[in-house]
Design goal:
30% strand, 5 strands, alpha+beta, 5-stranded antiparallel β-sheet, 3 helices, 141 residues
């Protein structure tokens, strides 16, 4: 079942909870499905080929999973249990591109044993619903 988020803070909270579970399969919930991408292209009157939509959707998911694996590897290497990260504050930096598409750079400030971390990613708005785009990173401050 597809979950659509019309509120960015709700989507961000759900995404954060999913990240703490360390489950790659749940990533799919935060990437637009094929049917949704097709309807978005139709609504925006964008000409597309079927394989372009398939490629776009698969690349979004693969890149997000790849970035998440890097976070898991980083946490293992630095002995950081990400399940125990405490969320302090979320910062939203909204923007628009040349085609008037809305996006937001999301930064979640977290702490663990007095150390500060930033979880960063790009959220995109498609047809009034928010999805996780890419650029997923966890960095120690």
């Amino acid at each position: 079942m597809e979950v659509l988020y019309d509120s960015l803070p709700i989507m961000c909270d759900s995404f954060y909870v999913m990240l703490l579970r360390e489950d790659l399969t749940e990533m799919k919930k935060f990437v637009p499905r094929m049917k949704y991408l097709k309807s978005t292209f139709d609504t925006m009157a964008i000409e597309y080929r079927e394989e372009q939509v398939v490629y776009r959707q698969q690349m979004l998911l693969r890149n997000l999973q790849k970035d998440y694996k890097k976070i898991l590897k980083y946490s293992e290497k630095s002995r950081l249990n990400i399940k125990r990260l405490e969320k302090e504050k979320t910062i939203y930096d909204y923007g628009r591109d040349e085609q008037e598409n809305k996006y937001c750079y999301v930064t979640v400030l977290c702490t663990k044993n007095g150390k500060e971390y930033e979880l960063k990613y790009l959220a995109i708005l498609l047809n009034g619903h928010w999805f996780v785009g890419d650029e997923l990173k966890l960095v120690k401050l």
